[in-house]
């Protein structure tokens, strides 16, 4: 074993990496349950495509550009480690193998671009999305990751802003990019008339459960070791989710008169989004307050899209964008010397850390928005990114359907079987009309099923 290698830290980082990689399938389920039935498979494909494309990009040039030696001004790394050149079995990043660190960071890149798909659910072509994943990862995520995560990146090294686990390159970047691509691809024709209701809420909750589980690896894994801030970071993640699940429902109850399960699920995500940059910088009490604040802010923010006319279909901007802003700025208020070595406003640090956090928010948000809008427009012109009619031309669906058991052909088959049964003679000793009554009840049940299917299809149009 190379000198400095730590088996415990390595084991934890391997587990954390697997947990974060699981978040992308979790996101696929989360988004898939929120859309209409005809868009389910499209959402799953968009997330799983990221698992493949970003992995290959990361090995080729992404890791080197993000974490390689700075190529000038803290803006981007060099290509010395392209295709993992110079990285062997004995190479270490701190006390863990470099390949594990690279894979851990790769899992961040995968989930980040996948998040953006929620802003354009149901109205993006698959070919356009595949090109977007490649372009956005290289032109937006990789540079911002270098700014924030690399020791010589300008936000970390020159500005001195704090971001423990990716509030800037992951959460804020995906939110700002979601806003840009939603504007670039234009809104649905019924955007202001019809609110999309989740077709399968249990599927949303399954996705949330996977995201929640993975988030512990996302945040606590960012410590890169089992000692130090990792245990508190782990606990802070849970506290923030719990706090948001109090704040959001309070606002939802006040505004709507009731609390919906979808709101509770979104609240948990908002809390974990907000604590991501602050999880290793604040105390448990600070984490609880940040989560509660994020729940309140994000509950209001998701309705802004109707006021400004931007079709952020699954509220990526409202949850990840605004949640990321809350989390990054909260460090300027709640940072404690015991956790991060820096003091926020509420702990005697004055405005010094707060202004640094604000500058980082403005820089990353502006860069991500501008670059993403240009990328989306260029792709739309070159290969076509926006579907011509989202209700008839479902991207990437081809001949696949998510729920084959709902097709009318199968119902007709069942009606044929029922007809055959109704023609069978009554059992010996049974009342003369028993078979006919049973057939009528069966026909009535099938008719009700047909009406239900047709009703669902009408609502999905």
Kindly report the average pLDDT value: 89
Helicity level, as a percent range?
A: 55-70%
Helix/strand structural class = mainly alpha
Looking at the structure, what is the overall shape? globular
Low-confidence stretches: 390-399, 425-430
Characterize the largest beta sheet: strand count, sense, and whether it forms a barrel.
Answer: 2 strands, antiparallel
**SS strand fraction:** under 5%
Provide keyphrases for this structure.
461 residues
3D architecture notes:
This protein has 461 residues and is mainly α. Helix content is 67%, strand content 1%. The protein is built from 16 helices and two strands. The chain has a two-stranded antiparallel sheet. β1 and β2 (96-97) form a beta hairpin. α3 crosses α4 (126-149), α4 (126-149) runs antiparallel to α6 (167-184) and α6 (167-184) packs parallel to α14 (352-382). It is globular, with a radius of gyration of 25 Å. The chain starts with 6 loop residues before the first helix and ends with a helix.
């Amino acid at each position: 074993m190379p000198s400095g290698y730590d088996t415990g830290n390595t084991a934890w980082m391997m587990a954390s990496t697997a947990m974060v990689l699981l978040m992308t399938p979790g996101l696929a389920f989360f988004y898939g349950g929120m859309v209409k039935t005809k868009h389910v498979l499209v959402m799953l494909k968009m997330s799983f495509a990221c698992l493949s494309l970003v992995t290959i990009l990361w090995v080729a040039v992404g890791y080197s550009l993000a974490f390689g030696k700075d190529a000038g001004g803290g803006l981007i790394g060099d290509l010395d480690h392209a295709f993992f050149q110079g990285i062997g079995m004995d190479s270490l990043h701190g006390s863990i193998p470099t390949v594990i660190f690279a894979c851990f960071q790769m899992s961040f890149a995968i989930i980040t671009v996948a998040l953006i798909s929620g802003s354009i659910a149901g109205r993006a072509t698959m070919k356009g999305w595949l090109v977007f994943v490649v372009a956005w990862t290289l032109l937006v995520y990789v540079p911002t990751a270098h700014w924030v995560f690399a020791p010589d990146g300008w936000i970390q090294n020159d500005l001195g802003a704090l971001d423990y686990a990716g509030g800037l390159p992951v959460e804020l970047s995906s939110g700002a990019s979601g806003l840009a691509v939603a504007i670039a691809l234009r809104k649905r024709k019924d955007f202001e008339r019809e609110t999309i209701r989740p077709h399968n809420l249990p599927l949303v909750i399954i996705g949330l459960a996977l995201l929640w589980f993975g988030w512990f690896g996302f945040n606590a894994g960012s410590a890169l070791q089992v000692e130090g801030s990792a245990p508190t970071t782990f606990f802070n993640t849970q506290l923030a989710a719990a706090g948001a699940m109090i704040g959001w429902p309070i606002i939802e109850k006040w505004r709507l008169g009731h609390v919906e399960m979808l709101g509770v699920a979104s609240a948990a995500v908002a809390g974990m989004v907000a604590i991501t940059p602050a999880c290793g910088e604040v105390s448990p009490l600070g984490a609880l307050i940040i989560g509660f604040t994020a729940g309140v802010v994000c509950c209001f923010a998701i309705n802004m899209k109707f006021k400004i006319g931007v079709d952020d279909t699954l509220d990526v901007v409202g949850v990840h964008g605004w949640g990321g802003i809350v989390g990054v700025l909260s460090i300027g208020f709640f940072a404690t010397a015991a956790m991060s070595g820096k003091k926020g406003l509420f702990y005697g640090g004055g405005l010094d850390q707060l202004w640094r956090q604000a500058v980082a928010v403005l820089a990353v948000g502006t860069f991500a928005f501008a670059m993403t809008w240009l990328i989306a427009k260029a792709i739309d012109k070159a290969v076509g990114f926006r579907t011509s009619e989202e209700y008839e031309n479902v991207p990437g669906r081809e001949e696949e359907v998510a729920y084959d058991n709902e097709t009318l052909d199968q119902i007709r088959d069942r009606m044929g079987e029922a007809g055959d049964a109704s023609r069978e003679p009554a059992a010996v000793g049974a009342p003369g009309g028993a078979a006919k009554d049973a057939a009528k009840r069966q026909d009535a049940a099938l008719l009700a099923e047909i009406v239900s299917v047709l009703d669902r299809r009408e609502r999905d149009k």
